[in-house]
Fold this sequence. Notes:
This protein has one domain: Beta-galactosidase, Chain A, domain 5 (Distorted Sandwich). Helices cover 6% and strands 38% of the residues. It has helices at 9-21, 105-109, 283-286; strands spanning 47-56, 59-67, 73-77, 83-89, 95-97, 118-119, 125-126, 130-133, 136-139, 148-149, 162-166, 169-176, 187-195, 200-209, 213-214, 218-219, 222-223, 237-240, 242-248, 254-260, 272-273, 299-304, 312-318, 324-330, 334-338, 361-366, 381-382, 388-398.
Amino acid sequence: MRHIKSLPIALLATALCSLVLAACSRQEASTPEPEASADAIPVSPIEVSAESWGELNGETVTRYTLVNEHGMEVRILNWGAYVQSIRVPDREGQIEEVLVGYDDWDAYLNDCCYAGPIVGRFGNRIDQARFTIDGETYQLTVNDGPNQLHGGVKGLHKRMWTGKIVDGGVELNYLSADGEEGYPGNLDITVTYTLDDSNALTVSYSATTDKATHVNLTSHTYFNLSGDRKRNIEAHELMIAADHISEVDDELIPTGRALDVADTPFDFNTPTAIGERIRVEDEQLKKGGGVDATYGGYDHNWIFAQADGRLRRQVTLFEPESGRFLEIYTEEPAIQFYSGNFMDGSMIGRGGRPVQHREGLALEPQHFPDSPNQDHFPSTRLEPGDTYSTQSVYRFSVLD
Length: 400
């Protein structure tokens, strides 16, 4: 049986001493570039700091760093609300990078592949890039064949957010104007990232509108728990608590049918290596497309068996060699699992290394794709006077 390692007593003692002595907050060691800003504030036991990381049209790109007492480090950008980096220990205590991403600001400005941002207003696909509300049809921007993907050409991932340090993390705000990317209503969005001492990163979302609209926000990070991309993700063992997926057509738009995962490559109710069944003949699997023209890959919406709006553990991911273990808790009814099908070396990641096939995977808690056009799906409609609110938690640990 695998066990989560206990935290060393010395670390707990250190934390208690820090509280008693009211130690000043950590300030990152200065480097010639970029310069650290002066707005770092003491947050105990989580240390939060901010630094200038670039500039765009006279606005400062700020990188926020969150660190806990176990060495877990998370870096957040106000550009696109990106999670730029997550560094966590393996079972030997070696702290390494577990996200696919870039080293510098320019790469995030020109990011081709949604490597860590908040996507929206509507994460995932909308058929024909349009929907109708109360008899009025809204034509959205098109960026995925005839459809819209992840909020359009200049979605939330291509916008400058306003950030501030809060207790244990950073709060980011963006006002998406009425008509932006075709969506109705002025949408006031807040996303808060907080870290705790159990190695859990919480992403909290809220939004209000002055006109009926649709909202489906999610974090689009690529995980690779091997550390610094030492191995691809095929040996990662994935569990998704879902009995059905959304059937998709050739453009990955849901047909409206839910398919039972039993006896298919889509059954991850028990932890299973991703590579174990990714090269089998399956009509839905092939629709995932990408580098493997024969078999395709995963790029589908898993419908959780139990989802009632409460925070539930729905997904786990384990990398056997490093021992790193990720648990995802969410209030959302589904998750999109994408197995890095189109990673072909054209994306240049950290250290100037090309990102090769299946060197990262995305796990995106969400409402169903194309919900605005499918009335029997859980609704994504937001009305004036109501508040969109959802939360997902990513907890890291190690297994023996």
